[in-house]
Write a structure and sequence with these properties.
By secondary structure, the chain is an all-alpha fold. The chain is about 55% helix and about 0% strand.
């Protein structure tokens, strides 16, 4: 997931300077030997931005890339004066007809759901109900089915829809709300595993290439995910372990690990819950995570934001230091201090963490968003055009409530929802 900042438009083209970042250097051989992956793409970018890298080396190494993102294209052109193009290569994973059909079905379901939201806005509630029924029929993912059912409840007030949601194994905003509305306990599929071993031999949790190798094993047709999960069952690799455990059971259980307790205990319970909530959504607690846009580490910081915070803190660091979970927590706490000056509600903080504080300010200041009215604030939460931020916010808010409970602070989700239309309790931007 991408993290943006208030003045990102001013620094989007800014190159990393040595005032805050001390860059490691890599040889062609080191990068070339890495397995094809997004993690290797990151190191190709690092190699291209080195002064010592020649144009000839750049032309050779770019063909090792899995995909070309903007950073790779810019770095390559600066080094060679040419536009980067990849020679055709077989994909790492083949797309089957089953995958294509599933994508088409989901796309149709999304259209029904989005049309349903539009009908709600136009007060054509019967047409909205029909659309939500169709969406529920076509959706295959449990959380999407739950979303459709929740909207059917909102429009009809029929408790049968809440009963169906409560039977869901998935942990999402709608399952928690169904429990709140019916005064029920939260689902039993929320698991926080206890792991005694500190680390496992042969896996460096802070090494992106070790994670790339694990993903390659995980995606083999005959992969035994439970065995792989056992191979990385340790405190250092708890993210890998729980990610694989969840995938092995097809997400019938939801894992909410609570790593790095000694470090986290220095913060208030609300800050701990927020950091945990974001980390779970950003990386599933995998310290060596790298996104397609080269967001780095457990908290998925973009390079320009790492540099900005390093300057603010007066530190000199290499980007790879963000693969330390402790450094990631430190920088997340610093960034959240900034966001909390303006945003008090975890949903709005999540929007800002993902889409930028400027985006969030513009969104919530619109007169037709997060104001009192029929089906609010649920309608505002669903009609956002920034799909990534929309779903990200709902998941982080859900995680936040769960982690507050895990930390011993009895909490329900519904009160957080109810405060979203009250600016005095959510943000400094609205009056």
């Amino acid at each position: 997931m991408k993290i943006k900042y208030l003045f990102m438009t001013l620094i989007a083209g800014f190159y990393l300077s040595t005032s805050a970042l001390e860059a490691k250097s890599y040889t062609y051989s080191e990068v070339h030997k890495m397995p094809q992956s997004v993690e290797k793409d990151y190191y190709i970018w690092r190699f291209l931005t080195q002064k010592s890298t020649t144009s000839r080396e750049a032309k050779a190494i770019i063909q090792d890339a899995d995909r070309l993102n903007k950073k790779l294209k810019v770095a390559y052109k600066k080094k060679t004066g040419k536009n980067a193009r990849l020679n055709p290569k077989p994909p790492l994973f083949k797309t089957t007809n089953k995958d294509k059909n599933a994508w088409k079905q989901t796309a149709q379901a999304n259209k029904y759901f989005n049309d349903g939201i539009k009908m709600v806005e136009r007060k054509k509630l019967q047409k909205a109900i029909t659309n939500f029924h169709n969406a529920h029929r076509l959706y295959t993912k449990r959380w999407e089915k739950d979303k459709s059912l929740f909207w059917l409840y909102l429009l009809t007030k029929e408790k049968k829809y809440l009963s169906k949601i409560k039977k869901s194994y998935h942990i999402n905003m709608y399952t928690l709300l169904a429990a709140d509305i019916t005064h029920s306990k939260y689902p039993k599929t929320i698991i926080t595993p206890r792991v005694n071993k500190n680390r496992v031999f042969g896996i460096d949790a802070k090494d992106p290439i070790d994670w790339a190798k694990m993903k390659a094993k995980m995606n083999l047709p005959d992969a035994d995910l439970d065995d792989l999960a056992d191979d990385c069952e340790s405190q250092a690799t708890i993210g890998m372990h729980t990610y694989l455990k969840a995938k092995a059971c097809n997400y019938q259980k939801s894992y909410f690990p609570m790593p790095y307790r000694r470090t986290m205990k220095q913060f208030s319970k609300k800050r701990q819950a927020l950091i945990y909530a974001i980390a779970r959504q950003e990386s599933r607690f995998i310290p060596a995570s790298v996104s397609r846009s080269f967001a780095l580490g457990m908290m998925q910081f973009m390079p320009f934001l790492i540099e900005h915070i390093a300057k603010k803190k007066g530190e000199h660091m290499d980007l790879d230091m963000m693969f330390s979970p402790y450094k990631a927590i430190e920088y997340a706490d610093f960034h959240l201090d900034y966001l909390n000056k303006y945003l008090y509600h975890p949903l709005f903080v999540a929007y800002a963490y993902n889409g930028g504080i400027g985006f969030t300010k513009r969104l919530i200041k619109k007169p037709n968003y997060f104001r009192t009215g029929a089906f609010e604030p649920y309608l505002s939460m669903e009609k956002m055009t920034n799909i990534e931020a929309r779903e990200y916010g709902k998941r982080v808010l859900t995680n936040y409530v769960i982690y507050l409970n895990k930390l011993g602070k009895s909490t329900r989700l519904l009160p957080f929802i109810k405060t979203l239309t009250n600016p005095a309790e959510t943000d400094k931007f609205r009056k």
